């Protein structure tokens, strides 16, 4: 904190010296829920993975050479559909370690991360935006913004 002494010898507190302290105090209690907690990360992955028709897994299935090979040996459309469905069910997802907090308030945060999926011999990644909200009772809810690939 800066202190300035005027020519009469009295001290006064410099406003600029207080600014960092005021900003620090102003931020207290304003931080939103953590975007990168294990619970939130798991929820984001689960929300995307549970949607078997998400654009990310569709892209990976359509571009997998291993899946294309299996499809080439299938005769009926029902058999091809079953191969695609099985590939989507077997897909593995991961959320990248780097999570960006776009905005944060006392009980909510909007975050961005990169989610990846692997299907057969193909992997694909997509940036995903999600919202983390904390209820008054402390319970956390997560929602994922729909995305296109």
What does the secondary structure layout of this molecule look like, with pairings?
Elements: E1 3-5, E2 11-13, H1 15-27, H2 38-50, H3 55-62, H4 65-72, H5 77-90, E3 92-95, E4 100-104, E5 108-119, E6 122-134, E7 140-144
Antiparallel strand pairs: 1-2, 3-5, 4-5, 5-6, 6-7
Describe the structure.
The chain is of the alpha+beta class and 149 residues long. The protein is built from five helices and seven strands, in the order E-E-H-H-H-H-H-E-E-E-E-E. Strands 3, 4, 5, 6 and 7 form a five-stranded antiparallel β-sheet that branches. Strands 1-2 form a two-stranded antiparallel ribbon. A hairpin with a 5-residue loop joins strand 1 and strand 2 (11-13). The chain is elongated, with a radius of gyration of 25 Å. Mean pLDDT is 82; it is low at 1-29.
């Amino acid at each position: 904190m800066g202190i300035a002494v005027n020519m009469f010898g009295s001290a006064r507190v410099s406003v600029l010296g207080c600014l960092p302290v005021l900003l620090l105090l102003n931020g207290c209690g304003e931080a939103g829920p953590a975007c990168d907690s294990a619970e939130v990360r798991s929820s984001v992955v689960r929300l995307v993975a549970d949607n078997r028709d998400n654009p990310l897994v569709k892209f990976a299935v359509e571009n997998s050479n291993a899946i294309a090979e299996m499809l080439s040996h299938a005769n009926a459309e029902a058999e091809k559909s079953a191969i695609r469905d099985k590939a989507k069910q077997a897909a593995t997802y991961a959320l990248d370690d780097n999570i960006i907090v776009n905005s944060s308030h006392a009980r909510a945060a909007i975050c961005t991360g990169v989610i990846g999926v692997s299907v057969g011999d193909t992997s694909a990644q997509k940036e995903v935006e999600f919202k983390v909200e904390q209820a008054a009772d402390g319970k956390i809810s997560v929602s994922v913004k729909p995305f296109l690939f």
